[in-house]
Design the sequence.
């Protein structure tokens, strides 16, 4: 059995989150998915602040990042992560409805690792989530310090 | 420094005067010399007269002596004694009168001769008195006295000759000098007269030229469209040209009666005064603008150029009426401001549109995805327990959401086409067509399609936009010729229109009714029902928008079931 790595899902829409989690579950990739609802929470999680001050150790193997979110948006999360020497090694995949050139350009300028436009068709959406999840959470070798869920200390 | 015409004239004049002076000097010297010569002649004649007298006196002395010898009469002795006195007197006179060395030498020879002759006569007289007649007669006949008399006569003759010769020489010299002087005087006078004439002619010509130049300047002064004036340092106009009167509407008298500052707009007076101050310090005005009041109360803008002339105490000014330009400038400034405001508004609107379409892109698609996703999950959750009808409903919901997703995408693309920056490069249509056909391979699999592509020219435009045009048109041709076997799609070029090449895409498909042709290129306008041919009705609107942004136009020809031809025009790329 594959050893799964932790995925951080940053998504403000509960429906989108449910669909994504469903897609990950359908592909047996949902063992360790941390879901936060906006950019501020995502940064708190990554920097172990506020509600996440005493979260478990280890960094996610990949961050699935929505762009349009309340409070701190995805591009800002991306900017802060990629300008932080510790966080910049974590792969970030933008998953968004936006196909706007400006978003694409800005994301790549900030150093995004992949950019996925969420398809309207659910089948295609599931496929996309499955591919992204499988690649980043299974196939890809994350940077040192990422937590494999199989190695997760049982509490 | 180059000598001016005036300098030349003065030099010529001075030279002529100098020559005249020299001639006068020569003439006066010659007159003095002529007087001297005349005096000399007179003196010579006087000397000659004295000599003649001397000769006759000597003869008379001899004759007196002889007469006494013959007669023994003492009465003859009286004139003898008297004549001796006269001889001595004549000799003194001659001595005083002569001045040439030759004459003096001659006189020195003559005087002893005369003295000896007188001595001879005296001895004879004494012999007659003391020794008697015979002794005296012998002395007389001895011939001694006669010989001396001859010698005296000869010497006197020689002296006359000497004297005449000297006189002739002097006269000749004087005459020669006189001739030379006359010639020189005539020459100098003639030359100076010629010079005077030349100088006068030149001066007159110069004067005529000046007069003509003055006349020309005056004509220009009168003709000028620009206002011209000479202003005094006292703040009054000295002279104004007719353009001044025409521009401002005042008479010359009115203009010169008041200080010119009175006519200047109150707001411009300080600046005008400052400019006048500079002019009075000798700084010329290159460009200065102020407003002058017209007779009717209106204001005219004048642009000035001025040159102060200190020695005349005036300023020469030329001014141009720039009122219209000023008004045009103001209008342009107003228009520019309006335009800038409008551009700002447009930019704002564009930004709003941008964020609007961003929201559409993001927020409108999300619910659709949710509808689609939850239907799918419902489908999975019920896992075949639903009735066939219920399943069909779910499928319809899915189809509808997909369709709407497509609509949103097309609409966003269409809106982007109008906004994105356009590149302008050379585009090889041949290559673009091949790429487009290659890209539509999926849609054409399993069908028999005859492609007829003619060689196409290169055009100027945005490659990605033009590719969109071809993709839409060729895509349509493929779609609407679906029921044909074989489908025939032709892509070519047919002539020119307004310097643009006409390109076309033709198919043998469903075609359309020409009476609805105007609806073809409208957004969301469709001529076919969705069940026949899928589509959002945005493709051709996008084509029209792109071609229009390239400055060209699109149109279509067709007939129901007889295929359709879509034309569009593009600017050809410059060859080479």
Sequence:
């Amino acid at each position: 059995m594959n050893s799964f790595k932790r995925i951080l899902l940053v998504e403000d829409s509960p429906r989108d989150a449910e669909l994504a989690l469903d897609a990950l579950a359908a592909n047996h990739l949902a063992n360790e998915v941390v879901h936060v609802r906006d950019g501020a929470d995502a940064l708190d999680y990554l920097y172990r602040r506020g509600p996440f001050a005493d979260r478990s150790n280890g960094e996610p193997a990949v961050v699935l990042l929505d762009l349009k979110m309340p409070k701190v948006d995805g591009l800002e999360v991306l900017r802060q992560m990629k300008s932080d020497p510790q966080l910049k090694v974590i792969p970030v995949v933008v998953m968004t409805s936006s196909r706007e050139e400006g978003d694409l350009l800005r994301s790549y300028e900030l150093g995004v690792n992949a950019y996925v436009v969420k398809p309207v068709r659910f089948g295609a959406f599931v496929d996309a989530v499955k591919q992204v999840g499988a690649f980043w959470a299974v196939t890809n070798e994350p940077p040192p310090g990422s937590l494999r869920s199989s190695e997760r200390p049982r509490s | 420094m180059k000598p001016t015409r005036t300098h030349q004239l003065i030099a010529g004049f001075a030279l002529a005067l100098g020559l005249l002076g020299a001639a006068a000097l020569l003439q006066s010297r010659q007159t003095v010399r002529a007087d001297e010569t005349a005096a000399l002649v007179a003196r010579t004649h006087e000397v000659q007269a004295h000599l003649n007298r001397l000769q006759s006196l000597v003869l008379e002395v001899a004759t007196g002596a002889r007469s006494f010898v013959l007669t023994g009469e003492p009465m003859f002795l009286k004139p003898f004694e008297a004549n001796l006195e006269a001889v001595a007197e004549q000799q003194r006179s001659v001595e005083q009168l002569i001045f040439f060395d030759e004459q003096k030498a001659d006189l020195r020879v003559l005087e002893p001769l005369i003295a000896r002759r007188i001595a001879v006569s005296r001895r004879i007289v004494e012999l007659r008195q003391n020794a008697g007649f015979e002794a005296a007669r012998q002395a007389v006949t001895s011939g001694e006295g006669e010989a001396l008399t001859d010698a005296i006569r000869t010497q006197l003759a020689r002296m006359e000759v000497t004297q005449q010769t000297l006189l002739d020489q002097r006269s000749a010299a004087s005459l020669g000098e006189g001739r030379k002087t006359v010639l020189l005087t005539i020459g100098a006078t003639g030359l100076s007269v010629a010079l005077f004439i030349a100088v006068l002619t030149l001066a007159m010509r110069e004067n005529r030229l000046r007069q003509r130049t003055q006349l020309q300047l005056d004509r220009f002064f009168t003709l000028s469209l620009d206002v011209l004036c000479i202003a005094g340092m006292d703040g009054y106009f000295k002279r104004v040209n007719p353009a001044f009167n025409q521009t401002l509407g005042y008479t010359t008298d009115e203009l010169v009666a008041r200080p010119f500052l009175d006519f200047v707009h109150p707001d411009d007076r300080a600046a005008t005064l400052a400019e006048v101050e500079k002019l009075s310090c000798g700084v010329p005005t290159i460009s200065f603008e102020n407003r002058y009041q017209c007779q009717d109360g209106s204001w005219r803008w004048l642009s000035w150029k001025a040159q102060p002339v200190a020695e005349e105490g005036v300023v020469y000014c030329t001014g141009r009426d720039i009122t219209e330009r000023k008004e045009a400038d103001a209008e342009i400034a107003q228009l520019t401001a309006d335009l800038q405001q409008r551009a700002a508004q447009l930019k704002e609107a564009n930004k709003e549109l941008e964020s609007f379409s961003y929201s559409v892109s993001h927020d409108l698609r999300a619910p659709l995805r949710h509808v689609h996703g939850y239907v799918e999950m419902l489908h999975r959750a019920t896992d075949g327990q639903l009735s066939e009808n219920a399943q069909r409903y779910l499928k319809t919901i899915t189809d509808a959401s997909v369709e709407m997703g497509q609509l949103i995408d097309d609409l966003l693309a269409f809106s982007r086409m109008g906004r994105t920056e356009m590149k302008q490069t050379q585009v090889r249509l041949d290559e673009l067509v091949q790429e487009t056909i290659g890209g539509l391979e999926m849609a054409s699999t399993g069908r028999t399609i005859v492609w007829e592509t003619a060689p196409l020219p290169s055009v100027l435009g945005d490659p990605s936009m033009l590719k969109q045009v071809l993709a839409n048109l060729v895509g349509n041709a493929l779609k609407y010729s679906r029921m044909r076997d074989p489908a025939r799609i032709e892509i070519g070029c047919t002539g020119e229109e307004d310097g643009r090449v006409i390109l076309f895409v033709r198919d043998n498909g469903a075609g359309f009714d020409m009476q609805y042709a105007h609806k073809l290129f409208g957004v969301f306008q469709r001529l076919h029902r969705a069940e026949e041919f899928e589509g959002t009705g945005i493709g051709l609107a996008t084509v029209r928008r792109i071609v229009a942004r390239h400055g060209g136009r699109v149109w279509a020809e067709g007939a129901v079931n007889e295929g359709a031809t879509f034309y569009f025009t593009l600017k050809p790329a410059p060859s080479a």
